[in-house]
C-alpha cells in the first residue's frame, strides 16, 4: 500500500528557494509530515526528488510496476512544458494527483498551462506544504 511522492526540478532547494512564494519548509519537512499522515492512513510513503525529467518518468513507470496506490507529483516547471510527463501519466493506470505549493494560475501566464493536469485525477495547489497532505488524503480515498 505505497504512495509515490515525486518532486521535480528545484524542489530540493525548498526552504531557501523563493521563500516568499514557497515558504520555509524543506522537502525533508514535507516528507516527515507525509510519513506521519501516511502512518495514520495506513499508507507507506516514498518521497523522491530529481532535477531530471527522465527520472520522473522512470519513477512513474516504477510506481505502476510495483502496484503503487497513487502517485503524488509536483513536477515543478516541467508541469508547464512536459508532454513526456503527460504521456507517462497516460501510459500507466496508477492514479496521478498533481500537487503545487503555490497556485500557478495566479502567477505568470506561462505557468497557466499544466500538461500533467490533463491526465491527473485531481490537482491540489496553493496550500503550501498542506497541498501535499490534502493530496495524500485524496489518495487514501481512491
Ligand atoms: C510549483 C509551481 C511551478 O510553476 C514552479 O515551476 C515550481 C513549483 C509549485 O509547487 O508551486 O517549481 O510546482
From TrEMBL:
**What positions are marked as the site Transition state stabilizer?**
17
Listed A to Z, the keywords are: Amino-acid biosynthesis, Aromatic amino acid biosynthesis, Lyase
Q: Domain of life, per the record?
A: Bacteria
Q: Which reaction does it catalyse?
A: 3-dehydroquinate = 3-dehydroshikimate + H2O
Could you state a single Gene Ontology molecular function term? Answer: 3-dehydroquinate dehydratase activity
Q: For this protein, what is the EC number?
A: 4.2.1.10
Q: Which InterPro entries match?
A: DHquinase_II, DHquinase_II_CS, DHquinase_II_sf
Active-site annotation: 22 (proton acceptor), 100 (proton donor)
Which pathway is this protein assigned to?
A: Metabolic intermediate biosynthesis; chorismate biosynthesis; chorismate from D-erythrose 4-phosphate and phosphoenolpyruvate: step 3/7
Q: Where does substrate bind?
A: 74, 80, 87, 101-102, 111
Protein purpose: Catalyzes a trans-dehydration via an enolate intermediate.
Subunit comment for this entry? Homododecamer.
* Family statement drawn from the similarity comment of this UniProt entry: Belongs to the type-II 3-dehydroquinase family.
This chain belongs to the protein called 3-dehydroquinate dehydratase
By which gene is this protein encoded?
Answer: aroQ
Amino acid at each position: 500500500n505505497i504512495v509515490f511522492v515525486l518532486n521535480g526540478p528545484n524542489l530540493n532547494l525548498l526552504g531557501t528557494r523563493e521563500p516568499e512564494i514557497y515558504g520555509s519548509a524543506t522537502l525533508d519537512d514535507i516528507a516527515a509530515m507525509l510519513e506521519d499522515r501516511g502512518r495514520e492512513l495506513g499508507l507507506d510513503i516514498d518521497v523522491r526528488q530529481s532535477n531530471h525529467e527522465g527520472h520522473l518518468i522512470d519513477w512513474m513507470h516504477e510506481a505502476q510496476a510495483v502496484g503503487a496506490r497513487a502517485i503524488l507529483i509536483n513536477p515543478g516547471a516541467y508541469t508547464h512544458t512536459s508532454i513526456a510527463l503527460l504521456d507517462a501519466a497516460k501510459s500507466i493506470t496508477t492514479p496521478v494527483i498533481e500537487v503545487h505549493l503555490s497556485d500557478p494560475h495566479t502567477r505568470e501566464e506561462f505557468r497557466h498551462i499544466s500538461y500533467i493536469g490533463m491526465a491527473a485525477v485531481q490537482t491540489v495547489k496553493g496550500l503550501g506544504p498542506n497541498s501535499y497532505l490534502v493530496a495524500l488524503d485524496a489518495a487514501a480515498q481512491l
